[in-house]
Amino acid sequence: MMTAPMTPVRQGGAQEMHPEPRPRRGVAWVHAAVMAACAVVGMAVVVRYAIHSVTGFDHDQRMMLSLGTTPEAWSRILDLLGLVTDVSVAVCLAVCVVVAMLRRRWAVAVSAGVLIAGANITTQVLKYQVLQSVSDRNTLPSGHTTVGLSLALAAVIIASHRWRALVTAGAAALATFVGAGTVAAHWHRPGDVLAAGMVCLGWAAVALAVAGGLQRRSPNARRPGLLAGSSLVGVVLAGVLVVIIGVRPSFGIHDLPLAVVTLGLLGAMFAVVVGWVSVAVDRVVA
Q1: Which pick of 71, 74, 126, 232 has the fewest CB atoms within 10 Å?
Q2: Can you give the residue ranges of the Phosphatidic acid phosphatase type 2/haloperoxidase domain (predicted)?
């Protein structure tokens, strides 16, 4: 009969042996299954409404056009989006894997690579080979958003539990700024960004299952409120930054309600995706 490994624990000068906590593989797989299901359903809804429905496509277009920028803001957004290239993705992927390997977290290194590579390849295949839009050219999902969000989620997975709350806030802020920036610059409609979020959520589910299944250490932190709050704070900070640099309703007060709804919808998606992944990682990944 097999017994759990024993860990020495010192109590009052005496050393006692306690069973070593086991990795929560079952919990990881449950989280992954629910995430994957939500990603598939979310993607189906976005595709049906945003590119397979003329009414939905027109509304998505109006939401994009409700946002405008000053010339200075447009230039700053393009400067940031211009950093998103194949080379930058490869470099960031390599950095994430190396950092995880230096910390001897082999399962995390594999899962981060799976997340980044899987999400970005899936987006390119869906956009150019699979999905068709009622318009002449399909732009769903957003490639820039996929890059920003997949790298942000990989950073959350790699971060140690001590720094995960701070990394979560930064990851949410970065992903939100990139996603909102593509809409404000009129590169993508909101539906494109939401679809990219579902792609990344789906591959985060795969990464979570990989990390939870391969690791041999047990997680040691459960802070759902802190991590969810950190994600929300990051999104709010990105929203404030977007307004500060010069993103405005295109036609003033007339477009203000729709512009607020557009930014609010994008912010809610990023807050939920980043926050959910962070909470799940904290529960099941050492």
Answers
A1: 71
A2: 137-209
